[in-house]
């Protein structure tokens, strides 16, 4: 008889492994992280690990997919009557708060080391598309309300917002003295200046 699976328990264990992987990848890089180290960090056996993730790359892809799903959920939770400029600002603040996780810089470096892998490139492209599709309608609404500049299309202005945020993340990954907490105010100021009518 097949074993029944508790979906909540299954998801909790999966998230436990993902969280442990973030720690390991940030600390040791992708190549430097073994499945044994992942299992130790997660407090599980190798059989449990391979039940959830058949390979280390599948785990990395799951982390990226989890981030993409969270972005879609974040934008999906905004109401139709929300103020568009407030939504854009809230997204930037939310993103800056996520970047305050001390593991993020190391995780970005770990992903950078395998960016040439087709599956990783595809996952990153999906994430970029989710952000563009989530943010662009709010930029368009803010333009319609004359809250932000209109000399660029909504698509291009959204792309520039993402360039600023991606650049901020890239700097976090390469400069230990550049911290999300220390530079959060500057990020918000740059975004505000970029958007200003």
UniProtKB/TrEMBL annotation:
<dbReference type="InterPro" id="IPR050109">
    <property type="entry name" value="HTH-type_TetR-like_transc_reg"/>
</dbReference>
<dbReference type="InterPro" id="IPR001647">
    <property type="entry name" value="HTH_TetR"/>
</dbReference>
<keyword id="KW-0804">Transcription</keyword>
<keyword id="KW-0805">Transcription regulation</keyword>
<feature type="DNA-binding region" description="H-T-H motif">
    <location>
        <begin position="34"/>
        <end position="53"/>
    </location>
</feature>
<dbReference type="InterPro" id="IPR009057">
    <property type="entry name" value="Homeodomain-like_sf"/>
</dbReference>
<dbReference type="InterPro" id="IPR036271">
    <property type="entry name" value="Tet_transcr_reg_TetR-rel_C_sf"/>
</dbReference>
<dbReference type="Pfam" id="PF00440">
    <property type="entry name" value="TetR_N"/>
</dbReference>
<dbReference type="InterPro" id="IPR023772">
    <property type="entry name" value="DNA-bd_HTH_TetR-type_CS"/>
</dbReference>
<feature type="domain" description="HTH tetR-type">
    <location>
        <begin position="11"/>
        <end position="71"/>
    </location>
</feature>
<protein>
    <submittedName>
        <fullName>TetR/AcrR family transcriptional regulator</fullName>
    </submittedName>
</protein>
<keyword id="KW-0238">DNA-binding</keyword>
């Amino acid at each position: 008889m097949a074993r029944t699976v508790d979906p909540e328990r299954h998801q909790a264990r999966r998230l436990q492994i993902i969280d442990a992987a973030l720690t390991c990848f940030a600390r040791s890089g992708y190549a430097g992280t073994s499945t044994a180290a992942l299992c130790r960090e997660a407090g599980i056996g190798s059989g449990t690990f391979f039940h959830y993730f058949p390979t280390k790359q599948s785990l990395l892809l799951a982390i990226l997919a989890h981030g993409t799903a969270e972005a879609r959920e974040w934008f999906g939770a905004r109401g139709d009557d929300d103020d568009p400029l407030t939504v854009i600002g809230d997204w930037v603040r939310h993103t800056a708060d996520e970047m305050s996780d001390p593991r993020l810089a190391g995780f970005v470096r770990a992903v950078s080391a395998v960016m040439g892998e087709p599956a990783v490139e595809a996952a990153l492209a999906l994430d970029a598309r989710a952000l563009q599709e989530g943010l662009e309608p709010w930029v368009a609404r803010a333009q319609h309300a004359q809250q932000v500049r209109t000399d660029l299309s909504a698509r291009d202005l959204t792309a520039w917002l993402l360039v600023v945020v991606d650049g901020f993340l890239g700097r976090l990954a390469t400069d230990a003295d550049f911290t999300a907490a220390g530079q959060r105010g500057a990020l918000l100021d740059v975004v505000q200046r970029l958007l200003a009518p």
